[in-house]
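queue> pop job 88
queue> type: inverse folding (structure -> sequence)
queue> payload:
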């Protein structure tokens, strides 16, 4: 296979972890006889510094013509002025909107060898296997916003249409059908009107199109508690943009570190006229450890596996990468964030251990 992959290293530790994922992708290409054409583009704070735009036109054009996109991270203290008119995160929101990436998939599955790394008790965490499906291009992050009363009052609308809810629920229900057949929809229907629409549309779609999938509605505040008490009870969880953002960051602590969790942002499949998927670790830019060699590359390496499977249709290659990561961790390879005070390896050394096992 010949595939064009755009790299968006971004800010903070982004360039370091993307560089390690590139090593893994090159190893996969060599082993399985593929050609991956890798090109690097600007996004986030680095793009602001270079061009004044968090997503320059050249970056967007390259992404639109790619087969898949690998992103590191955006943001940092340098660009953290809340009153700034241009912010790194705007580049991320724009690329999601421009490419129609309406669904963010975030698997939460603690590695057996790292169950003890979780702040929760082992018997609560062990066996957890949740797939979050977060709606990514609607809701409060894309609603009309502004200031009034001379800047003393701020507002931001939460807006969802039936069509937006239908497409994310269909995708999530299809994934649930291929797993354990259970879908949990999270909303705030007791208070918010968009959530009432979300719940009614979800119920209708599931009844009419997915009667074989068991549906459960849970309020977002209750879900925040359930994740800490009974995470094993959930299979696929679908929710809106804001709730999904918060809940998945909370759930990331189940495996013990943000540095272990990948994500995929997907839209309409390429076979149906859609664009490329975007793959990124769920952690941030971690500017406090940038350049120290302490960054955990495993989430980004696992992103490369999702890229291979969901972006390029190469499940065997993806499984090889995932198995290599699991085997490395089982052999005791630990970066500082998961070492629990014990011996740790550097970013490059962790990748070396994975490469030895591919």
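queue> result:
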């Amino acid at each position: 296979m010949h595939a064009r992959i755009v790299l968006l290293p971004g800010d903070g530790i982004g360039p370091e972890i993307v560089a390690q994922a590139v090593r893994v992708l090159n190893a996969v290409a060599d082993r399985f006889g593929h050609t991956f054409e890798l090109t690097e583009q600007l996004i986030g704070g680095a793009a602001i510094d270079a061009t004044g735009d968090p997503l320059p036109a050249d970056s967007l054009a390259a992404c639109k013509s790619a087969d898949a996109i690998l992103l590191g991270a955006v943001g940092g203290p340098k660009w953290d002025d809340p009153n700034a008119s241009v912010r790194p995160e705007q580049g991320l929101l724009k690329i999601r909107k421009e490419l129609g990436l309406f669904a963010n998939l975030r698997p939460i599955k603690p590695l057996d060898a790292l169950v003890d790394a979780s702040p929760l008790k082992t018997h609560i965490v062990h066996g957890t296997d949740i797939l979050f499906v977060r709606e990514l291009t609607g809701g409060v992050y894309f609603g009309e916003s502004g200031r009034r009363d001379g800047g003393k009052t701020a507002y931001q609308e939460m807006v969802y249409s039936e069509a937006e809810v239908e497409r994310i629920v269909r995708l999530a229900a299809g994934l649930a059908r291929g797993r354990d057949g259970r879908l949990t929809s999270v909303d705030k229907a007791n208070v918010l009107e968009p959530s009432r629409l979300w719940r009614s549309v979800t119920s209708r779609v599931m009844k009419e199109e997915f009667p074989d999938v068991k549906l459960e509605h849970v309020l977002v505040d209750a879900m925040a508690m359930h994740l800490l008490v009974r995470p094993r009870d959930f299979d696929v969880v679908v929710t809106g943009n804001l709730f999904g953002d918060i809940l998945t960051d909370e759930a990331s602590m189940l495996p013990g570190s943000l540095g272990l969790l990948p994500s995929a942002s997907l839209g309409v499949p390429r076979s149906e006229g859609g664009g490329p998927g975007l793959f990124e670790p769920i952690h941030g830019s971690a500017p406090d450890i940038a350049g120290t060699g302490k960054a955990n590359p495993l989430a980004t390496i696992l992103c490369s596996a999702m890229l291979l499977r969901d972006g390029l249709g190469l499940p065997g290659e993806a499984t090889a990468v995932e198995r290599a990561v699991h085997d490395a961790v089982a052999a005791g390879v630990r970066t500082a964030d998961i070492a629990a005070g014990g011996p740790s390896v550097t970013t490059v050394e962790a990748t070396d251990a994975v490469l030895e096992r591919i």
